[in-house]
Amino acid sequence: MNINPLCGALGAEIQDANLSDLSDAALTEIRDAFHEFHILVFPSQDLAPADQVAFTENFGPVEPHPLRTRDHVDGFPAVLILENRPGRPGAPNDYWHSDISHAAAPPAASCLHALTIPDGRSDTMFCNMVRALENLSDGLQSTISDMRALHSGRATYLRSLKASDARTIDASEVRPPQAHPVVRTHPHSGKKALFVNPHFTIGFEHMTEEESAPLLGVLYGAATKPENVYRHRWRPGDVVIWDNRSTMHYAIRDYTEDMPRKLHRTTAGGDIPS
């Protein structure tokens, strides 16, 4: 395999890897690269749903979305279908977020396999939350080191009311906000990263949303500086896996429902942030 960094911020492309048939040595190399680069891109893959599940299991137990927001592949409840087609526009994800951060134990990793991509559109941006923390002043790092933030699934519920490709969620399914450390330590690499995001984080513990907003804005601004972002241009066959513990992502919505787009998503379960 050849491992090539994608930019100065984060990400690496791994060529000449067959994800449906990996040796133990190759898996070790891939895991090491995952913890170093936070995002891995594998071009020209042809993964059956079972193979995608098997690959994702190398990063944590594969689990379905807790709110079951989208349809899944028949026989594979953990393989969600992200689809945009005429008469059924896909649910937008054009906001910075870390997947399902409102869970008690948010996902370790998300994996997407691109099947159909509108030419030159639907890129996804990723930012490095380890570097975002490191680039804050010593004073601000000290201030937030012991703070906790509240994460809520209400935003997913509200989006489901508008999305034609998503299951409408009953409000009773949305659990109370979950508190997580603002700075979390990666369980494998030991690196510290910011763990807040504009979509699910509603404020700091013991503070109002209004009081929380200015500081959250500073943290989001540090995370999403252009020099801290990798923008992935999707190609059919791409498999991209990213670490939800150390990144945020933003799916660019520059396509319409007459531009077919289809990807399969799997999720590797994680641990309680600490």
CATH superfamily: Clavaminate synthase-like
CATH C-level label: Alpha Beta
Measured by DSSP, the beta-strand proportion falls in: 25-35%
Give me the Rg, rounded. 18 Å
Q: What is the name of the CATH architecture?
A: 4-Layer Sandwich
Order of helices and strands: EEHEHEEEEHHEHEEEEHEEEE
State the total count of DSSP E strands: 16
State the end-to-end distance: 34 Å
Q: Which percent range fits the helix content?
A: 10-25%
The largest β sheet comes out as: 8 strands, mixed
Side by side, the strands of the main sheet go: 1-2-3-14-6-16-5-4
Number of domains: 1
Number of H/I helices: 6
Tertiary shape: globular
Summing up helix and strand content along with how strands pair, one would put the structural category as alpha+beta
Uncertain segments = none
Average pLDDT confidence is: 92
Describe this structure in words.
The chain has 274 residues and is an alpha+beta fold. It has one domain (2-268): Clavaminate synthase-like (Double-stranded beta-helix, 4-Layer Sandwich). It has six helices and 16 strands. The strands form four sheets. The chain has an eight-stranded mixed β-sheet with strand order 1-2-3-14-6-16-5-4, covered by helices on one side. Strands 13-7-15 form a three-stranded antiparallel β-sheet. A hairpin with a 2-residue loop joins β4 and β5 (76-84). The longest helix has 15 residues, at 209-223. The radius of gyration is 18 Å and the shape is globular. The protein starts with a strand and ends in a 6-residue tail after the last strand. The mean pLDDT is 92.
